[in-house]
């Protein structure tokens, strides 16, 4: 049947979306975690300098 | 001040401002005419019986013009700091909503009153009929209530003018369907009894969404 | 922290297993339907995805009410996460629905009430997501989003009624998927439904937790400035 491609397309689409979304979440998670580390270091550095000065 | 008197005072204020600047009314009117003309061109090239598309075209024009008017109405409030000022005054928040929605309703009705004869002329379809009034009233009421809520919200965002149509139009889909169908039915001679179902739907929509907008408005006003 | 990580891993594992079972059930175990043939199997994924989409929007609705009634970051995080995931699944409903329409009635779109309502709902929540991108102040953003989510979700039954009514007057040639389910088909469907719901729960939890992390980033950023 030449319209089986529809079934394949539908299933493929679902997996593309689901895995795509999971991948996007994963990338965002990694990025956010890096941001937290960087920001924390920046704050420590800042308060460290403050303590040294004050 | 009692609720009714406050509301009336606020509506009167809006009407007074509008009478002086005619900002909203002008914008809505010109835009409605533009939409009607463009739709006329768009459809006439293909459709034999223009009467078929007239109801839809009419309500598209009202919806888009309404969005413009709502935007202007609330943008002006924001520019002048009116909303913040009103919130400081000992005014019932709900009165502000009723007043704003009523004022917007009146403006939209005003624009419609001017568009209808024009539409009759340009489309060749007589929409100047008394039985259409109830459809117009119910439809505009719903648009004004939900539109006021969403416009007040949109005006406080970065996307501002762009956001209102994006938020309002999907939510008003049932209203627009019912209004267009009812209008079409009446134009086809079905009589008010014939379009009772659509009028009921409009009624349900209005009942639910006027109430919900009324309840949710205070959350939009909070600082 | 440890137990939460283990729970997360367990949930992910369970989700993967359930999904594999669902694929097997839908593609192999379930008997081929008489009328539509193999293409009917789209149904085993199309409907569960639709259920999850509406479930998610419902969660967003409830969380939005919770936010306006009680306040607190958690409600807003859930409302947002559920809206986003709902939108992803709604997109899938529409796309697979189009495949189904093409397979069953040789047309890419039908103004079927359920499909059209899903489209309108998709538009409403697209507005929600755009709104969220448009407000910087955290509290305002949460409040405005909640208002839109509540308004939008309440609209759904009315939209459905309107379109169904409209459709009976504009009769469309075909009817909705009135598939008679044999027991084996029913089990395949239920397995698939369970798999998608488990997947949904896993996604929602992960997304909400990520939103907490994003909040922390915002908080730290403001402290640095």
The rough form of chain A would be described as rod-shaped
N-to-C span of chain A: 80 Å
Shape of chain C: globular
Weakly predicted, low-confidence segments of chain C: none
Structure, explained:
The complex is a heterotrimer of chains A (54), B (223) and C (225). Chain A is mostly helical. The longest helix of chain A is centred in the middle third of the chain and has 50 residues, at 4-53. In chain A, 93% of the residues lie in helices and 0% in strands. Chain A has one helix at 4-53. Chain A is built from one helix and no strands. With 223 residues, chain B is an all-alpha fold. Chain B has one domain (2-222). Chain B is built from ten helices and no strands. In chain B, helix 3 crosses helix 8, helix 6 packs antiparallel against helix 8 (173-187) and helix 8 packs antiparallel against helix 10 (196-221). The radius of gyration of chain B is 18 Å and the shape is globular. Chain B starts with a helix and ends with a helix. Chain C has 225 residues and is mainly alpha-helical. Chain C has a single domain (13-224), classed as Four Helix Bundle (Hemerythrin (Met), subunit A) (Up-down Bundle), CATH 1.20.120. Chain C contains six helices and no strands. Chain C has helices spanning 2-29, 43-70, 73-105, 113-134, 138-169, 183-224. The two termini of chain C are 30 Å apart. The mean pLDDT of chain C is 87. Chains in contact: A-C, B-C.
SSE map:
The complex is a heterotrimer of chains A (54), B (223) and C (225).
Chain A: H1 4-53
Chain B: H1 3-21, H2 23-44, H3 50-79, H4 82-88, H5 93-123, H6 132-154, H7 163-171, H8 173-187, H9 191-194, H10 196-221
Chain C: H1 2-29, H2 43-70, H3 73-105, H4 113-134, H5 138-169, H6 183-224
Give keywords.
heterotrimer, A: 54 residues, C: mainly alpha, Four Helix Bundle (Hemerythrin (Met), subunit A), 0% strand
Quick overview:
By secondary structure, chain A is mostly helical. Chain A contains 1 helix and no strands. Chains in contact: A-C, B-C.
């Amino acid at each position: 049947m030449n319209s089986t491609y529809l079934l394949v397309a539908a299933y493929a689409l679902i997996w593309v979306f689901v895995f795509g979304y999971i991948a996007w979440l994963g990338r965002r998670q990694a990025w956010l975690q890096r941001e937290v580390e960087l920001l924390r270091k920046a704050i420590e550095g800042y308060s460290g300098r403050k303590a040294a000065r004050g | 001040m009692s609720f009714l008197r406050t509301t009336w005072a606020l509506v009167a204020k809006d009407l007074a401002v509008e009478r002086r600047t005619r900002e909203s009314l002008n914008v809505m009117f010109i835009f409605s005419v533009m939409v009607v003309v463009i739709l006329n061109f768009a459809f006439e090239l293909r459709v034999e019986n223009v009467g078929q598309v007239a109801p839809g075209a009419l309500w598209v024009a009202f919806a888009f013009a309404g969005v413009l008017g709502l935007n202007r109405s609330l943008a002006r409030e924001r520019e002048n700091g009116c909303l913040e000022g009103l919130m400081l005054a000992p005014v019932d928040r709900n009165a502000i909503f009723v007043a704003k929605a009523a004022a917007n309703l009146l403006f939209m009705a005003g624009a419609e009153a001017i568009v209808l004869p024009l539409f009759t002329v340009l489309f060749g379809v007589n929409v100047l009929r008394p039985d259409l009034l109830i459809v117009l009233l119910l439809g505009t009421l719903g648009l004004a209530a939900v539109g006021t809520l969403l416009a007040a919200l949109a005006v406080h965002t970065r996307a501002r003018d762009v956001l209102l149509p994006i938020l309002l139009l999907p939510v008003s889909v049932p209203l627009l369907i019912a209004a267009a169908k009812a209008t079409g039915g009446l134009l086809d001679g079905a009589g008010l009894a014939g379009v009772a179902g659509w009028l009921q739907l409009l009624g349900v929509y209005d009942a639910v969404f006027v109430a919900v907008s009324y309840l949710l408005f205070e959350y939009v006003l909070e600082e | 922290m440890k137990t939460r990580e283990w729970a997360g891993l367990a949930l992910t594992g369970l989700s993967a297993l359930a999904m594999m079972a669902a694929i097997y059930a839908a593609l192999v175990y379930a008997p081929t339907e008489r009328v539509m043939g193999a293409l009917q199997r789209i149904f085993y994924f199309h409907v569960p995805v639709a259920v999850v989409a509406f479930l998610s929007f419902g969660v967003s609705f409830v969380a939005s009410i919770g936010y306006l009634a009680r306040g607190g970051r958690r409600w807003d995080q859930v409302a947002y996460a559920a809206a986003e995931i709902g939108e992803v699944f709604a997109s899938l409903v529409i796309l697979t629905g189009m495949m189904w329409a093409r397979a069953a009635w040789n047309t890419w779109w039908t103004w079927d009430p359920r499909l059209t309502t899903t489209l309108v709902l998709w538009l409403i929540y697209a507005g929600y997501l755009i709104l969220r991108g448009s407000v910087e102040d955290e509290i305002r953003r949460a409040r405005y989003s909640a208002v839109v989510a509540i308004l939008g979700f309440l609209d759904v039954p009315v939209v459905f009624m309107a379109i169904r009514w409209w459709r009976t007057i504009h009769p469309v040639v075909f009817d909705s998927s009135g598939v008679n389910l044999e027991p084996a088909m029913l089990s395949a469907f239920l397995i698939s439904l369970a798999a998608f719901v488990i997947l949904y729960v896993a996604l929602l939890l992960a997304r909400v937790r990520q939103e907490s992390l994003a909040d922390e980033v915002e908080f730290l950023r403001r402290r640095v400035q």
